[in-house]
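Tokens as discussed.
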């Protein structure tokens, strides 16, 4: 199944446009370098090389800025501008006191001021969170990023959670997760292909939902091979959280200090609470491990053990809860027949 089946075609078109603009920028820089070199009598090779280098640096800086959250970019620019202004004032004072320093006496303080202003603003950004919340209507967007892993997309329950309005902000789907999902969908194994198709269907559903925003993120970490570690690094970079139902990824992210939203934990916490002595109405579906036990299930999959329920296989019975056992695999409810009364015979 092609990736554009999750409406990534718009993203791909945008990426093509960005590549065209960046290439044009480098080409224009090369032409400008050639023209300047020709006009001042310098070798055209040096002009072309210098123009290409400056154009490449400009594109790289633009790319890096595009990976930063809007708030960091904003405060970096503001800090740099204030630092540049302070450097200009200091440089002017230096030139007026020591005219012999020339242009360097003005330019060096400006450069240092811009650098210090930018770095101080970025490092002390947390002190500006209150002002950031006022300037940006959505507050600190970094805290609203939720990075999805492959397992939670294939699982599908994330769609129901979003439709119910329990998640807000931006759901981030990294390109390396899409590639992994594509690999699953192209598998020769029928079960894997079905799982991959379901994952793409879930992404389509999320993109059509008006309650969440889905962002296909291009940032990758080539030096990291494991997808789980890439997910954690991306979440750290965005200042967001990882959404998963993978136990190992859950623990690894917690060890790395990255917040995790585990769909399985959410499902367990939403299961109805039952207390000893409460009445339940269940249907006995199969035999239990112990003698005369019957097994029933609630709608959420919780196992209900019915003492003396073996003789009521296929029947609906009223039972009384005797105890509840919470295990790592889930919850088990132990019951006994209420006065041995059978309902629905």
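Sequence:
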């Amino acid at each position: 199944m092609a990736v554009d089946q999750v409406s990534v075609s718009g993203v791909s078109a945008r990426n093509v446009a960005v590549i065209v603009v960046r290439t044009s920028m480098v080409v224009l820089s090369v032409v400008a370098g050639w023209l300047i070199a020709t006009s001042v009598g310098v070798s055209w090779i040096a002009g072309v090389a210098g123009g290409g280098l400056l154009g490449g640096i400009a594109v790289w800086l633009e790319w890096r800025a595009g990976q930063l959250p809007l708030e960091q970019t904003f405060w970096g620019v503001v800090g740099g501008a204030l630092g540049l202004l302070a450097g200009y004032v200091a440089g002017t004072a230096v030139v007026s006191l020591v005219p012999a320093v020339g242009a360097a006496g003005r330019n060096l303080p400006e450069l240092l001021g811009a650098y210090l202003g930018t770095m101080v603003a970025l490092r002390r950004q947390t002190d500006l969170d209150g002002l950031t919340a006022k300037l940006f209507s959505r507050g600190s967007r970094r805290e609203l990023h939720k990075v999805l892993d492959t397992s939670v997309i294939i699982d599908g329950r994330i769609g129901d959670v979003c439709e119910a309005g329990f998640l807000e902000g931006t759901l981030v789907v990294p390109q390396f997760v899409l590639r992994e999902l594509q690999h699953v969908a192209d598998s020769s194994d029928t079960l894997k292909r079905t799982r991959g198709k379901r994952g793409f269907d879930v992404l389509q559903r999320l993109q059509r939902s008006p309650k969440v925003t889905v962002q296909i993120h291009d940032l990758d970490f080539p030096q990291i091979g494991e997808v789980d570690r890439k997910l954690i690094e991306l979440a750290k970079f965005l200042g967001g959280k990882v959404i998963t139902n993978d136990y190992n990824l859950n623990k690894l992210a917690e060890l790395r200090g990255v917040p995790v939203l585990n769909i399985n934990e959410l499902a367990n916490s939403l299961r109805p609470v039952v207390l000893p002595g409460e009445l339940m109405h269940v249907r006995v579906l199969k035999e239990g491990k112990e003698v005369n036990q019957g097994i029933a299930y609630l709608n959420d999959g919780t196992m209900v053990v019915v003492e003396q329920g073996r003789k009521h296989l296929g029947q609906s019975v009223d039972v009384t809860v005797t105890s509840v056992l919470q295990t790592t695999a889930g919850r088990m409810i132990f019951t006994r027949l209420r006065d041995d009364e059978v309902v629905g015979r």
